[in-house]
Amino acid sequence: MSVSREELKKRACEAIEKNRDKIIEIGDSVFGEPELGYKEFKTAAKVKKVFDELNLQYEDEVAITGIIAPLKGKESKVKVAVMGELDAVVAPGHRCADKATGAAHSCGHNAMVASLMGVTYAFAGTGIMEELSGDIVLMAVPAEEFVELEYRNQLKQEGKIHFFGGKQEFVRLGKMDDIDMMIMQHASSKDARGILGCCGTGSNGFLGKLVRYVGKEAHSGGAPHLGINALNAATLGLTAIHMQRETFQDKDHIRVHPIITKGGDLVNVVPADVRIETYVRGSNMDAIMDANAKVSRALKAGGDAVGAETVITDIPGYLPLVVNNDLFDVMYENMKEVFGEDKVLYEGPAMAGSTDAGDISSIMPAMHSNFFGSEGIAHSSNYEIVDKQTGYIDAAKCMAMTLIDLLYDGAEKAVKVKENFKPLMTKEEYLKDWGKVE
Ligand SMILES: [Zn+2]
Ligand SMILES: [Zn+2]
Prior knowledge:
This protein has twelve helices and 16 strands. By secondary structure, it is an alpha+beta fold.
């Protein structure tokens, strides 16, 4: 006799509760040892330790540090991936910042690792998979934060990656080929209304840009007239970008936020090598491409004005995140059960930030849900998960319950999600048109 859906959910939540100390320990341990994208070796080792403990088969070193562990159902009608991100950002003033790199978990990805481990405990060895008509694929994914563009460009030139985002690499490497849909969670800061969960939001997409101004060195005191000042070129280029802002329309949510990563070599030498990294963000691709043309034109104007060479490299960033109402419907019911109806939002306001979950959502149904367990400003030194019940434990329960709903009863709900989905592009179009993969 088959076990009821409610019984399976209860069993999953009990397994998560039984392992709550271990889940909290791994979440806190990852928080204490933050690593930047494509360098998450210690974090990956922590995930593998849990998989080893549970005797799970897995593939590691996917896109350098990624790990994939498939869990088989009684039949394999549908395959659902659950993703957790391994990487941190840079916030050197953070209490747990890495002394050498300045890396800190100021985006709360440690909560993703914790809740992914919670989902693992829910399904590994609990007999639940034997009642489901689809497979679950646990994915620990590197490099969500699109940072250190020069370093990643180097990895690209060495042939170690092509895309700068880990989920994008999973697509390129064929790891998403047999996956039908993806679910995940991201931490959000506590909300004055007491909201604890949200099925997701739409988000901006963006294009990345690496800019290099090539000038000419000379003695900055003795003979600056013999040099070409690349820092002056950059200053003008950045100012020229600001002159474009009145043409950006509110509806498109354009954001351009450059940083200078190299401003010169030595104070008494005319700067001849100045470098900038920037994103050009927007809510839709047409607006991003339009703003990008203006930004490139502005940057080049700076170089032209002083006679420096302007070298611009455009890099595929992330696509806008697509909301999937069919997946939201399933998650929403479970969030209401865990938190109570008044503490849950169906869809939050669109994010001006971006995620490579947007790329996944363009080619298959995907859900980037939010759990409000953190405090402080994201990407700053005061951010951390303060409510671990919500951020680690309940997030895992909601995802586990959603997976059971999707794959129970002949995977009826997952099949419906799959059938209703219209991709924005195929994998081949994605790689060729967006990724410029030859
Ligand atoms: Zn972030
Ligand atoms: Zn994040």
